[in-house]
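for the writeup, i need someone to sanity check this before i put it in the appendix. the sequnce is what the collaborator sent (i think, or maybe the updated version? ugh). structure was predicted straight from it, no edits. if anything looks off just tell me and ill rerun, i have time this weekend
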Amino acid sequence: MKQNMGSLDKALRIAAAVVVAVLYFTKVIDGTTALVLGILAVVFVMTSFIGVCPLYLPFGISTRKLKQ
């Protein structure tokens, strides 16, 4: 698969996952909210590491800089 995520996009997703983790471990969120946000955080981390966002593909979106 062709990568479609830029560095800023990856960094923001990792930051969002860290925020969710902090909220969970400080017991600000719990129950269903924690479960849903936890799954979303895991997806954010996975997509950041592989560099591909499946939701960008159907729309042809890419935040990655093209090499000139």
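Residues 31-50 form the longest helix (20 residues). DSSP finds two helices and no strands in the chain.
thx in advance!!
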